[in-house]
Amino acid sequence: MESASEAPKQNRPIGLSTGVYNNHSAGGCQTFPGYLLESTMMKNTKRDTILETALRLFSQYGYGNVGIERIISESDVARMTVYKQFGTKDGLINETLELRHRNFMEDLLQSLEPHTRYSDRIRALFEWHQNWFQSPDFHGCMFIKASEEFGAANPQACAIAQEHKLAILALLEAILQEPFGAKAHQQAVLVFICLEGLIVHANMFPGKDLTQDIYQVLQPLLAP
After folding, report:
1. Best exposed site among 70, 112, 124, 181 by fewest CB in 10 Å?
2. Cβ 215 vs Cβ 197: under 8 Å
């Protein structure tokens, strides 16, 4: 863990570990295996402010269209603070993606807490995505955009994006494991591709939500 006086490490490893997502519901503690992005940094108010500002700007305007100067200005911090904490713009982008992953998964899992049946959990997942699409903060998927924009230019950002998608797939497979057993992965892939397609469609065609249509088509296919 770095102190405020230490320069940030360049190309630090992605803090990934295999873990479980705990869902404490009326039916007991349900665990969802997946990938957790571990936060290895101390709580730091200025760091948090910079990350939240970068998250908002990158989400709305993209990575290439937002420069460090704008992030510095809107965060109301010194230039040296940004470079001391993150080293480079790529370093800031990578940690912003990690923050987005944590926020995304925490919010998504909270939507599952009231439910114990797999069918109710799948419905809750689609409802969560529909609410996201209809919110003013929806500007498409930061992970898809990162994968498209960076490629070899920032392989760590692409790796974080891939691990985020793997976490969603792992969550779906865990939900579908009990009713489908050996076919859980196949069913999870079906739901996953539908959700990914909905994200892209919602970003391309604002106001033309197809979430409920896709959910209705999937329902008979998800009957064990």
Report:
1. 181
2. no
